[in-house]
Amino acid sequence: MAQHPAHESPLGKSSAYLSQYDASLLFGIARATKWAELGFTADNLPYVGVDIWNCYELSWLLPSGKPVVAIGQFSIPADSPNIIESKSFKLYLNTLNQSTYASFTEVAALLTADLSAVAQAPVQVELKTLEQVTSEGLQQPLGLCLDDMEVNLSRYEHPQLQQLSCGTEQIEEQLYSHLLKSNCPVTGQPDWGTVQVHYRGAALNHASFLAYLVSFRQHQDFHEQCVERIFLDLQSCLQPEFLSVSARYVRRGGLDINPYRSTEFTSINNARLARQ
Whose CA is closest to 119, among 83, 89, 88, 86? Predict the structure, then answer.
């Protein structure tokens, strides 16, 4: 079996937690490997999108020595050459803890430069106070929740296009499910998420889609790649006029990852769900 591209990253290994700024800890994982498995390159991706990361453990020192806490939002283009490996991201953010910066603006500029260099594409950074995030509150996903459907399930490892079915009626609808679970391909740790789908196309059989989502339960892949697979399989099944797929993942180590893939850019709501 081919070695996973994250093998050389800090993922799944013992690591020292440094408290002084060190951008060298960031580790990029090339997206091209997974793109090639799906038959694509950076020049012919069938979607547009972004990966939104939210950081809830961000702190640094003012020149007076007083600490500041903030919440960070990082938007990484879905066509960037590299994913930023999550553990390296956490280790890097920890190095700000005992480092001194005069303002939110200075920290945001530093994060923008470092993350963009590793992703090899422009990364957008926004820092917020806890009061700002509190005022934004929680959101409820739009559309129909599939989780109360009665379905019989026995497959948990290999989500496949053949599991999906649709009718001939052309409709527009929004669906969501909180039952997505997959596993990290390096450590095997569980990743929990909520999938949201909006499409115009052939009417998707809801039971088939719920069974398809649950079949990710023992599947091993990164958050971004799970969402891309769901997008591509739905696109193949529905032949939609419009399709967007996003997932809101439960945070780990103070970071949550929220990939979004679509046939066209639409507004993205980054408000938290209940499990985030």
Answer: 83
